[in-house]
Amino acid sequence: MAPVTRCMPPGPPPAHRRLREATRHEHAAAERTAVMQALLNGQLDDAAYGRLLLGQYALHRAWETERAAWLHGELADAGWYYASRSEALARDLADWGLSREDEPLPLACASHSQVVGGSSASWGELYVIEGSALGGQILLRLLEKRFPGHAHHFFRLGQEAGRGTWRTFQSMLDHQLSQLDQQQTAIAAARAMFGRAQRMLEAVRA
Ligand code: HEM
Predict the structure, then answer these.
(1) What are the pLDDT digits (tens) for 109-161?
(2) Domain that holds residue 168
(3) Is residue 15 within 8 Å of residue 176, measured between CB atoms?
(4) Residue 24 CB less than 6 A away from ligand 1
(5) DSSP for residue 134
(6) How far apart are the first and last CA of the chain?
(7) What is the pLDDT of residue 18?
(8) Mutate which of 130, 134, 200 to test ligand 1's pocket (most atoms within 8 Å of Cβ)?
(9) Nearest to 196 by CA among 100, 105, 80
(10) Atom number in ligand 1 closest to CA 19
(11) Whose CA is nearest to atom 28 of ligand 1?
């Protein structure tokens, strides 16, 4: 008798691929902001770098506060070590002689997720943060040339993590977001997170 082959219904494509494709446009918009362009062109001055650090601090501190329970609970239980961006940025601000109270941006431009609650939304937001550390390695090299003698803790985080770590993170995304509805929530949250970053980057004068 011929072997019976069972047709499995095809599942959605892996989450990491869907997230990348669904946020391509948002990524390009972030790269086009004046402050990112100034950084890429070697034209960022001391004051603008300080404003960028303050803006990044406001954004990441707000997000880490909102998602504190998830970061220290479910995410830690899943085995992912999240390196606090706001802590790295606090060290950069001190190194730059800036106070955390110097935040020039109204917190409204950095805070409040549009996609409320839920683990899938948190994974989608974290995708933006962890992914940004990849391009951060290019930015780190430019910053080291432009401002030698500074640690650039925030932008160094991606270098410390490395490629293997990113692949591990992508596998976790695929595992945690295996269902279509989970992926849709994560994509909406990732787009909203890019939106928050975009508003912050646009508010930072280059
Ligand atoms: C001038 C600024 C930027 C440059 C040049 C840049 C560059 C890059 C590059 C080259 C990669 C791919 C790295 C690789 O696969 O090896 C990447 C990935 C990524 N970047 Fe950026 N980036 C910039 C800004 C940002 C910002 C501001 C964010 C977030 C708000 C961001 C979020 C991401 C994410 C989520 C990924 C992962 C994409 C994927 O799924 O493969 N990037 N970036």
Answers:
(1) 555 655 566 899 999 999 999 999 999 999 999 999 999 999 999 999 988 76
(2) 15-203
(3) yes
(4) no
(5) H
(6) 72
(7) 98
(8) 134
(9) 105
(10) 40
(11) 132
